[in-house]
Amino acid sequence: MKFRIVMLAVAAVLGFVGLSHGSSWDAPSQVLAALTGSGDLSVVVLEWRLPRVVAALAFGAALGVAGGLFQNLTRNSLGSPDVIGLDSGAYTGALIAITVLGGGAATLQLSSVIGGLLAAAVVYLLASKSGLDGMRLIVIGIAANAMLVATNSWIVLRAELDVAIAATGWSAGTLNGMDWEELILPLIVLAVLAVLIAVITPAVHQASLGDDLALASGVHLRRLRLLMVVAGVCATATVTAVAGPIVFVALAAPQIGRRLAGRPGIPLLPSALTGAVLLLGSDLVAQLLLSPVSLPVGVVTTAVGGAYLIWLLILQVRRGALVA
Predict the structure, then answer these.
(1) Which of 264, 260, 287, 286 is nearest to 272 (CA)?
(2) Integer Cα distance of 30 and 46 in angstroms
(3) What is the distance between the alpha carbons of residues 269 and 68, in angstroms, rounded to a whole number?
(4) Where are the alpha helices (DSSP H) in 28-85?
(5) Cα separation of 58 and 183, whole Å?
(6) DSSP states of 152-177 as a string?
(7) Is the pLDDT of residue 74 over 60?
(8) Handedness of CA 234, 239, 245, 247 (dihedral sign)
């Protein structure tokens, strides 16, 4: 409970800072007045800055919980959607929608989800022969990720110049220019996924104690794993379709969350809260680092996540094995 209160307080403070920052800093009293619909800044705060803050919180939570689901599934701290190729699969689907299909946000999101699901299906089927093994799934996922990255580069190189430039900029993962119109559909999808994840959370935690104990307590493991994959892929692909692939949040948030919460296993709620705070904080850094130029948030998460991944690998090697 203390962890949740602290993380919610940190998110509230960071969110208020995000609402106060634009081309210059605005006074807290002006921001509070704008939030009530009065004052000169109401349009700026409510229509321009608030969607970005909401997107950072919702997308960070979605990536965090997706990472938690896959790390529970693989029982490995490296079992993250961006490591095993699901982000790249979703990006492939989005690129096909941009360069071949055209269409609006719904087409982009649907193609992204389909790309992520196809990547997950291929990795899952190849890894589940003779029983699901977490390390085998990660190794196959890394290989699939490499092939998908090459495919994505080929698609961009074959595209028209203006489309290729737009796709390349978008591939860094950015919340720049986010507005309510872009957010309505993703937020509805993420709300539905949140209900599904809340329903399966007790079974996920039960399964983390071991297959035998889960089966003895009535958990249907095959159905649970399928729901975990679908929920994790849909959450990742939804974020990718709107903001581009934002890497390393799904990898780092579950592990940081469980250490801060002091909980065993990979608890999903701390993963979501940590992901929300991590992405919101990274987006603020992206806005302030070269202000007034706002960097793509993916640049910051890549830098932070790269350092985290090196630390994680060193920690795992010292323990003698790459297992959670």
Answers:
(1) 260
(2) 12
(3) 9
(4) 28-35, 42-43, 50-74
(5) 10
(6) HHHHHHHS-HHHHHHHHHHTT---TT
(7) yes
(8) negative
Task: Locate 250 and state its tokens.
Answer: 């799904």
d(C-alpha 321, C-alpha 312), whole Å:
12
Q: Which amino acid is at 142?
A: I
Q: What is the dihedral of CA 84, 269, 76, 123, to 10 degrees?
A: -30
Give the chain's length. 324
Dihedral Cα 126, 128, 131, 132, nearest 10 deg: 120
Q: What is the 8-class DSSP label of residue 128?
A: -
CA distance 278 to 321: 27
Q: Which residue has the tokens 């492939």?
A: 92
What three-state secondary structure class fits 293?
strand
Residue for token pair 């299909």: 101
231-267 tens-digit pLDDT: 988 898 889 888 888 888 988 899 888 888 887 778 8
